[in-house]
Amino acid sequence: MTSRKIVINFPKDLIDRPIVYKLIKEYDLEFNILKASITPDSEGIMVLELMGDKKKIDDGIKYLKDQGVKIESLSKDIKVNWDKCIQCGACVSICPTEALYISDRKTMKVDFDAEKCIACELCIRPCPPRAIEVHYTT
Ligand code: SF4
Ligand code: SF4
Description:
This protein is of the alpha+beta class. It has 2 domains: 2-73, ACT domain (Alpha-Beta Plaits, 2-Layer Sandwich); 76-137, Alpha-Beta Plaits (2-Layer Sandwich), CATH 3.30.70. 20% of the residues lie in helices and 38% in strands. It has 3 helices and 8 strands; from the N terminus they run βαββαββαβββ. The chain has helices at 19-27, 54-66, 90-94, and strands spanning 2-10, 30-38, 44-52, 70-73, 75-80, 100-104, 109-112, 132-137. The chain has a 4-stranded antiparallel beta sheet with strand order 2-3-1-4, covered by helices on one side. Helix 1 packs antiparallel against helix 2 (54-66). The chain is elongated, with a radius of gyration of 19 Å. The chain binds iron/sulfur cluster (SF4) (2 copies). One iron/sulfur cluster is lined by residues 80, 85-91, 110, 127-129, 131-132.
């Protein structure tokens, strides 16, 4: 099971069609709607998290594109807001890639190496002051 976040932008004539529903029925995918809106010129924009088998996600995305839906992948970056961080170290033991690490053993200063981060989000919840943030970009 894998997941992928996408932004889908569909034209007026597709708004009433159950294209997203077909992703569940025919491609065996689960999804979360993270955001949905209809713009003034009646285009629909939806941010979806698709979950399921990788190949089925690819096939489902191909199906959407074949229907005339524009798709953009949403990538995410993890950032630490150092103004909020209280240097408690709770994230360090949780991070599977050592992207969050102790950079100074004497002061136990916590640091972040973005190159090592795989954006798994395991560190988000355990951070008491919510100093770790997810930023999405297309
Ligand atoms: S998102 Fe995952 S890999 Fe990145 S810093 Fe947090 S726990 Fe580590
Ligand atoms: S858990 Fe949050 S507050 Fe604690 S060291 Fe990590 S980023 Fe800083």
